[in-house]
Amino acid sequence: MEQIADFFQYLTNSEEIIQTGGLIAIVLIVYIENGLFFGFFLPGDYLLFLSGVFCGLVLLKVNIFLLLISVFLAAVLGSFTGYISGYYFGEALENKKENLFFKKKHINRTKRYFEKYGSRTLIIARFLPIVRTFAPIMAGLVKMKIIRFWIYNILGGAIWVLVLVGGGYYFGVHFPWIIDYVHYIIVFFLVITSFTVIKGYFSAKEEIEQEK
After folding, report:
1. Number of structural domains, the chain?
2. Beta bridge partners of 102
3. For the VTT domain, which residue ranges apply (predicted)?
4. Angle separating helix axes 64-94 and 22-33, nearest 10 degrees
5. Domain with 103 in it
6. Structure confidence at residue 7 (pLDDT)
7. CA–CA separation, 27 vs 16, rounded Å?
């Protein structure tokens, strides 16, 4: 049990993932978090930002263009995997019993984003924890045209990766002292993540009460 707990702690520790797993671990985490429903808890935003910072500081010994392309492909292919699973197994997923790795509220919350923003959800969701994981699944579930999906999937993935990895790289190159504040960066992203999740919860609760 302790080994399992340590493993999950490792998966949510971006700094350790980057330092010990390198590019392969980053790519694998991004792929899973972007389209497999059980990967919603994995670090996304701050993993990308810190990978850019570490690359800029040459602590992650990978060319920035290789990093950008690899993470972009992982994000796009991960979302496509989510789309395919939603397209063919979406109904089974909706009827799936809740467990530690699956909550129907995540599906319902993503569905509301689609109702409000349509296909643009695939771009907006890139910056929204949990929704980022379930958006491509929902796109497949509602049978979004695959060409339309690819356009928004690629555009959203490109913006997400350029902003976070590119931004992190810029800070790493021009403000090397940022390495002393890595834990504060993680806390910053965690606060934003928590705020987004809490806000989404209360918004959903308010909508449900209005429908009654």
Report:
1. 1
2. 99
3. 42-169
4. 30
5. 2-211
6. 37
7. 14
